[in-house]
Specification:
The structure is a single chain. By secondary structure, this protein is mainly α. It has 2 domains: 44 residues, no CATH class; 196 residues, Four Helix Bundle (Hemerythrin (Met), subunit A), CATH 1.20.120. The chain is 63% helix and 0% strand. The protein is built from 11 helices and no strands. α3 packs across α5.
């Protein structure tokens, strides 16, 4: 639902309540700063509306996570990165709007600019559409996938090289595990750590792609777009959190 713009004294646009105290960092000591902050805030709200319309692919995320939890280790690693590749292509396609005949096909096939996973990861980082941690984690997921694909003798996450790579992924699972009362539940399971950290990377990738491109185009900080209470967060971005929570519960509850 579109949030209506409100006006304060003397017809000045009222800064959105979630950042009203600091006026988006512009200050309120004079009329210029008040107006600059108000105009900046209106752009932030517009970008939030764009983010709310972004197709997060909830069904695809849930089905892939479910399949990854039941597959053998090699298939799990390959499957999760296959989804990462698909999500990157989908995000690029949703956000590259130029009307060029055959342009997308040229970019994404053969020797095009987006032909390989490395190309897609690099382009997203160069565009500043994804956070540095997401960029780094995508690189690690790609290396894990390649290690399984190119070494037929490596069949599980217990392989020392794979364990080291899983350890290199961003450790974001601790708050959720502590909430569940399972703080050390995955410490001895490289497979469970991979399932949680890989899924988190993909969820954060989707969130970045829902916000980053529009934020950069509008010249606002992506963090300001995300600076919302749970009740104010667009329903599609709430759904990303639910998908990750469902996956975490299933992973931690599983016997393997």
């Amino acid at each position: 639902m579109r949030r209506e713009r409100q006006f304060g004294k003397k017809g000045m646009p009222k800064v959105p309540r979630d950042n009203e105290e600091n006026n988006w960092g512009f200050g309120t000591d004079d009329q210029v700063n008040q107006l600059a902050g108000a105009m900046y805030g209106s752009v932030v709200i517009s970008i939030r509306e764009e983010a709310a319309a972004y197709d997060i692919g909830a069904y695809r995320l849930r089905r892939t996570f479910e399949a990854a939890r039941t597959e053998a280790d090699r298939s799990t690693a390959i499957l999760m990165f296959a989804l990462a590749e698909d999500l990157m292509l989908s995000g690029l396609k949703q956000n590259l709007h130029g009307d060029v005949k055959g342009g997308w096909k040229e970019l994404s096939s053969g020797n095009g600019l987006l032909a390989t996973a490395s190309d897609r990861i690099t382009l997203l980082a160069l565009l500043d559409w994804i956070q540095p941690t997401v960029y780094a984690d995508l690189r690690v997921l790609k290396t894990i996938r390649n290690h399984f694909a190119h070494h037929p003798d490596v069949i599980g996450f217990d392989d020392k090289r794979v364990q080291g790579l899983v350890s290199a992924l961003s450790s974001v699972e601790k708050p959720g595990l502590e909430t569940m009362g399972k703080g050390g539940a995955t410490a001895k399971s490289p497979r469970k750590l991979f399932l949680l950290r890989a899924a988190s990377t993909l969820v954060r990738l989707v969130s970045n792609l829902a916000i980053g491109p529009a934020a950069r185009q509008g010249n606002v900080a992506p963090g300001h777009v995300e600076e919302l209470s749970w009740e104010q967060l667009p329903s599609n971005l709430q759904e990303l959190h639910r998908i990750m929570a469902e996956h975490m519960i299933a992973v931690v509850s599983s016997a393997s």
